[in-house]
Amino acid sequence: MAYDRPLLDPSPRPPPTPLPLTSGHPTPSAELPKPLAEPPVHGETYYNHFRSSSRRATASSRSRADRISLPELGSSESFRRAAGSRGHVRHGSRADSERLGGGSQKEIADEDAWLVYIDDPGKTNEKFEYAGNAIRTGKYSLLTFLPRNLFEQFHRVAYIYFLIIAVLNQLPQLAVFGRGASIMPLAFVLLVTAVKDGYEDWRRHRSDKIENNRTAHVLSGSEFQPKRWKEVRVGEIIRIEANETLPCDMVLLSTSDPTGVAYIQTINLDGESNLKTRYAKQETLSKAPEKGGFSGVIKCEQPNRNIYGFNANMEVDQKRVSLGPSNIVLRGCELKNTSWAVGVAVYAGRETKVMLNSSGAPSKRSRLETHMNRETILLSVLLFSMCSIVSILAGIWLGNHKDELNYSPYFRKKDFSEGEEKNYNYYGIGLEVLFRFLMSVIVFQIMIPISLYISMELVRLGQAYFMIRDTNLYDEASNSRFQCRALNINEDLGQIKYVFSDKTGTLTENKMEFQCASIHGLDYHGGRTPSPGDSMRVGDEVWRPKMMVKTDPELLRLLRSHDESDEKSFADNFFLALSACNTIVPILVDAPGQPGVKLIDYQGESPDEQALAYAAASYGYVLIERTSGHIVVDVLGHRQRFDVLGLHEFDSDRKRMSVILGCPDKTVKLFVKGADSSMFGILEKSFNVEVVRATQSHLQAYSLLGLRTLVVGMRDLNDSEVQEWKSSYEKASTALFGRASLIRAVASNIESNIHILGASGIEDKLQEGVPEAIEALRRAGIKVWVLTGDKQETAISIGYSCKLLTDNMTQIIINSHSKESCRKHLEDALAMSKKLVAMSYNTQNAGGTESSRVPQALIIDGTSLVYILETDLEEELFKVATNCDVVLCCRVAPLQKAGIVALIKKRTDDMTLAIGDGANDVSMIQMADVGIGISGQEGRQAVMASDFAMGQFRFLVPLLLVHGHWNYQRMSYMILYNFYRNAVFVFMLFWYVLYTSFSLTTAITEWSSVLYSIVYTALPTIVVGILDKDLSRTTLLRYPQLYGSGQRQERYNLKLFILTMMDTIWQSMVIFFIPYLAYRHSTIDGSSIGDLWTLAVVILVNLHLAMDVFRWNWMTHATIWGCIVATGICVIIIDCIPSLVGYWAIFHIMGTGLFWFCLLGILVAAMVPRFALKVFNEHLMPSDIQIARELEKFGNPAEVPAAGDIEMRTATTSQHHRQ
Question: Which residues are recorded as binding Mg(2+) (predicted)?
Fold first, then answer.
C-alpha cells in the first residue's frame, strides 16, 4: 500500500564531497558521450561551495556507460554506443533508498561481536567457526530421509493409532488378520506421502546444487579468480559485475561510480522490483584491492533476520568508520545499472539474512478439518464402546460356558493332541476379556478412516488445479494466473463471513493520475484535454514523456506567459518542486511504431512520485536527467541544471521529504512536500493566512472527491543557512551512534518557516469491477471491512465510489484522542446501534422487508484504535462493529490491521479473510483464516505471505461464491461419506461378532478388509470431491445468497453426522441380517457368505454415492461403476488362490438364485429410508440449494426473478435472532 510506504525509503544522502579519480576506478572514456554543449544549460556559474558536487557529478556521469549526460545536439549516436544492445538508455542515478532499520547505531559488545578480517579469510575463519557459503534447503539426506520422514508423518495422531493396531496384530494372542495384511493400509499411506515428500526434497536438492555451483569472482593474490559459490568464505573480497546475483551478504568497499553508489534489485529477497541504492564508504573508495595492501577488520552484529538493519564498525587505516544498512548488500540481490561493485563477505551460507528468513508463511488448518477432529473423537468413543461391549459379552459367555470350553471350537482349554494334557490358546477369563478388547480394536480399526487423510490431500490438489486453470481468475493486465499457495484450506473459501480489505492497490489500481492542483490559493482542476508534455529534439530524435496527463488550459496559459506576477512565480516553483523533489529516474525507451521517437519513462518506488513527475512534464517541466549530484530539467523548452546539495528523504516521523537545490540564478532553494498534517505545522507564521485557508479548503474538497493529497512548499536559503546545514549534516551523517535520529533532527531544523506553494490532488482509480464485487459480497452475507491509511475524507469518498457506503446508511464516526473519549464515544455508538437494530427488527416483524432495515457503517481512525486495541475497550468496539454492516478504518498502521482481524477471530467462530497487496498488509494476511495477496504495484511481499494470490479484487467474487462454494460442498460431503463408508463395514463386522460367540473371527477375507478402503471404494469419492458441482457457475454468481449455506455450515455439522451414523446402523443391519436369515439353515460356509457381504457393502456404498452425485461425467461413471466391477474381479481372484482361506467360496454361492435375490434385497431395503428422507426434504423442506437446482433444471431463465426477489435465508436474519 502506498500510504504506509514512504515516498522515499528513509536514508540520508552522503554529503557531496569531491573524490579524485584513482587507479581503483576507471578513467573517463573518450567514447562516452560528452556533457551537453548546445544549447547551453543555464547556470554554468555557481557558488564556490557548489563546485565540488558539480565536478563530482560530471565525473560520475562520464565514468559509466549506462549513466550519461545529455549528448550534443545533432548526434544521438553516442547514446546508441553507450546503450549497446539494450532496449533503453538510463539517465542519471537513483536517489538514496537506505532503510534505517532501528534507526540508530549502538555499541557492539565484544562477546557479541562478529569479527571479519578483510581479505584474510584464513584468520577470520581460524578464530571463528563461520558457516561456509554452501546452502541446503533440502530437509533430508539419504541417511536421514526414512527416520525423519516417518517421524514427521507420525505427528498425525491417527497414524500412531494405526501403527499401534498393526503392532498389536503381530502378537500371536491378538492376531486377527495376517501380519502382512494388517500393515498394508498404513504402509500404503506412509509410502505415498514419503514418495511425495521425497520428490519435493529432491527438487530442493537439485536447486541447491545449481545454486552452490554458480561462480563468483573472488580476489586471489592480485586478481579476481572465478570460484564456486559454495567455496566462498567470510572475509574474502568479491567482485560483482552488472546484472549478477550476490553470492553472500557483503559490505561494499567500492563501485564503478566514483561516489560509491551501487544500484540493487531485491526482488529475490523481499519481492520488490524497484531499485535501491547502497553505498561504499569514502574511506575505502580509493583503494584497489587487486593491487594489494587492503587490510582492515569489520566488527558487526551476529547474524539475524532483519533484512532492513545492519549494525557494524570498520577499522581501516587506523580509522574507525560506522557501517549501516546502506553499506551492506544481501545475498540474492542483483546489481543493476552499476558496472561493477567490490565488497567483503561478512555473512555466508545459512547465516545470510535471506536464508535466516527462508521460513514460509505460518501453517493454517482448515475449519472443516478442525471440526472433523470432533467427529473423530466421537467415532473413537463409539469404537471404544463397541469393543467394550464385545469384550464384556465375551467374558459373560466364557463364564456361562466354562464347562464346555474343552470342546469349544474357539475357546478350547486343553490340548490332548500329543497325549500330554496342556493349556491351549486360553489364558483365563480376565486375560481373555483383555485380549478380546484389543482384538476388537484391531477388527474395528477402520471405524476411523485412514484413507480419508490421503483422499483429502488428493481432492485439494485437484481443486487447486481447477482454480489455477480458471480463466475467470486470470488477469490479462499483469499476465498472472491465480496461485494456490496453501493446499490445506481450499474449503475455507466457502465459509467466509468477514473480508478485511486494504484500499490502495487492492480496491484501487495504485496507478496514480494527477487531477488538480491548488497553487497560491487558486484551484486549477480543469483537466479538459490530455497533454503529453513538451517534446524536445535531441539530434535526430524526438523525446517526450511516456504518459499523458490532462492539463488545465488556464494554468498552461499562466505558465507560458511572460509576466512576472506572483501567481506565475508560485506556479513555476510549484512544478519545479514536483519535478525535482523526488527520486524519479528518467529512462529512455523506444516509442512503439514511431521510429525516431523516444519516450521518457519515469521509474520510481512510489506511484505518487511518478504521477507528479508526469504532471510536471505535461505542464512543461520535464525531468530529463538525474545523477547523484545534479538534475537537469527542461523548463518550458530551456534546459536548466540544478545541483542537488542535499536530500532528506521521507520518514514516518516527519511525513515529508525535502531537497536543497543550487539553482542557475545562483540562489539556493529548499523544496518540501508531504502530508498536510505535517506541512501546515512548519509554515512561516507571517505567511498569507488567506492563501493557507484557501489551500486547506481545496484539500478538503479534493479529499471528498477521493483524491490523494500532498502539500508543497519552499523557502530560499542564504549562505549562512546553507553552511550551517552542511556542517550539521556532515556531523550527523558521520556519527557512529544515533545517526538516524541526528539526521532527522537536521532535516526538521532546515524544514521550517516554509512558504506554501500549493497542493496536489491525485486520483487512485478503482479497479475494474470493484463496486459490483462488493455489492455481490454483501448480498452473499459477507461483511466487508476496509482498513486503510488514507485520510478519513478520502476513505469515505472511495467508500461511496465502490458502493461500500450508501446514502441510506447511518454513519457512526469515532475520532478520539484519549481513552476516556473513546470509551464515551463507544458507549454512545453502542446505544445508537442497538436502537437502530431494534427499530429494524420491529419493522420487519410488522411486515417490512429486508430492505427496510437501517444499515449502519462504523468509521474509526487509527488514533482511536491506539486507545482501544488490546485494552478493555476491545469488547465495546467488537459489539459496535458487529452490529454494523460496514466498518471503515482510516489512518491505521499495519499492526492495527492485524489487531482488527484478531478482534473478530478471538470472539467469534466466523471465518475471516484478509486481502492486500503491500508489505504492510502481511500481518493482516497472516492473522486471518484465509489470506489473499494481490499481485500489484508494491512488490510481492503480500503474495509471498498469502495462502492464495490473484491479480484483481473482483476475482474474489468467483473465488468465494463459485470455487469456495464448490470446494466446501465437495469436501463436506467427502468427509461425511468416508465416515459413513467405513462405519457401514465396521457395524456389519460387529453384528457378525455377536453371532459367533464374540470370538472376533470374520467371514470376510483379510485381503478384502484391507482393500475395502484403498481399492474398492476410495477412487469414486476422490473424483466426486474434485469434479462434482451442485450448482452451475452462472447460478452461483446470479444468486450470491446461495453462499450462505457454507456460512451456516449446512453441509457439515453434528446433526448431519448423527443422521449419517443412524443411517449407517440401519444399512449395516440390512447387509448382515438379510443374508444371515436367508442362509442360517443352509450348509453354505462362512467364506461364501462373507463374499456376499463384501459385494453387497461395496455396491451399496457406491450406489449411495451415486444417489448424491449432482453432475455426472464420464470420469464419475467410470470410477463408480468401475470400482464395483473391480471389486467383483478382486473377490474372484482372491478366492482362486488355494493358499488363502475361502478357496473357491464365491463360486459356491454365486451360482444360486438366492445370492442374487439377497443382493437385490439388500440394496433396496438399505436405500429406502435414505431415499424417503431425501424426497421428504426436497419437497417439503427444500434448502436454498435445492430451490436453485430446480430453477436450473426446470425454470425458464427468462422468467427467473432477480436474486433479491427469491426468498433465501441470509446472515442478517440469523444475526437478528441472535440479538
Answer: 502, 504, 917, 921
User: Which residues of the chain are in CATH 2.70.150.10 domains?
Assistant: 232-357
Q: SS3 letters for 670-687?
A: EEEEECHHHHHHHECCCC
**1169-1184: b or e for each residue (b if 16 or more CB lie within 10 Å)?**
ebeeeeeeeeeeeebb
Active-site annotation holder among 502, 552, 1030, 1135: 502
How distant, in Å, are the alpha carbons of 307, 363, 651 from that of 101? 8, 27, 12
pLDDT of amino acid 293: 65
Give the C-alpha separation, 1043 to 961, whole Å.
6
Residue 580: in which H helix or E strand, if any?
helix 566-580
* C-beta of residue 1122 within 8 angstroms of C-beta of residue 1130: no
Lookup result for grid cell 494554468: 555
Residue 276 dihedral angles phi and psi, to the nearest 5°: -125, 155
State the span(s) of the chain assigned CATH 3.40.50.1000: 482-506+767-836+854-951
Closest CA to 302 of 351, 267, 363: 351
Burial class (CB in 10 A: 0-12, 13-18, 19+), 157: exposed
Indicate the annotated binding residues: 502-504, 609, 650, 673, 708, 788-790, 891, 897, 917, 920-921
Q: What contacts 557, CB < 8 A, 6 or more positions away?
A: none
Annotated binding site for Mg(2+): 502, 504, 917, 921
The 10 Å Cβ neighbour count of residue 645 is 26
> How far is 148 from 133, CA to CA, in rounded Å?
25
Using CA atoms, how far apart are residues 657 and 850, in angstroms rounded to an integer? 51
DSSP 290: G
Rounded distance between C-alpha atoms, residue 79 and residue 90, angstroms: 10
Q: If you average pLDDT over each of 589-598, 873-882, 991-1000, which comes out highest?
A: 873-882
In degrees and rounded to multiples of 5, residue 617 shows phi and psi of: -65, -40
Rounded CA-CA distance 532/516 in Å is 16
How many residues can be counted in the chain?
A: 1219
Strand order, beta sheet including 496-501: 483-484, 948-950, 930-934, 911-916, 496-501, 783-787, 886-890, 856-861, 810-814
Q: What is the CATH number of domain 232-357?
A: 2.70.150.10
Q: 904 phi and psi, to 5 degrees?
A: -80, -45
Calculate the dihedral angle through the C-alpha atoms of 1004, 1010, 1011, 1014, rounding to the nearest 10 degrees.
140
pLDDT digits (tens, 9 = 90+) for 1102-1157: 999 999 999 999 999 999 999 999 999 999 998 898 887 878 888 888 888 899 99
Supply the pLDDT for residue 628: 67
The residue written with cell numbers 536527467 in the block is 625
CATH topology classification for 482-506+767-836+854-951: Rossmann fold (3.40.50)
Cα–Cα distance, 289 to 218 (Å, whole number)? 11
Mean pLDDT, to the nearest integer, of 1049-1054?
A: 92
Distance CA 399, CA 411 (A): 12
The percent of residues above 90 in pLDDT, for the chain, comes to 36
Range 729-746 average pLDDT: 80
Could you identify the residue written with the cell 498536510? 676
In whole angstroms, what is the distance from residue 69 CA to residue 640 CA? 13
Examine the residue annotation and report whether 403 is marked as an active-site residue of this protein: no
CA–CA separation, 360 and 1027 (whole Å): 30
Report the pLDDT value the prediction gives residue 64, as an integer from 0 to 100.
33
Locate 986 and state its grid cell: 465396521
User: CA–CA separation, 1029 vs 194, rounded Å?
Assistant: 32
Model pTM above 0.85: no
Mark the binding-site residues for ATP, compressed into ranges: 502-504, 609, 650, 673, 708, 788-790, 891, 897, 920-921
How far is Cα 513 from Cα 611, in angstroms, rounded to an integer? Answer: 5
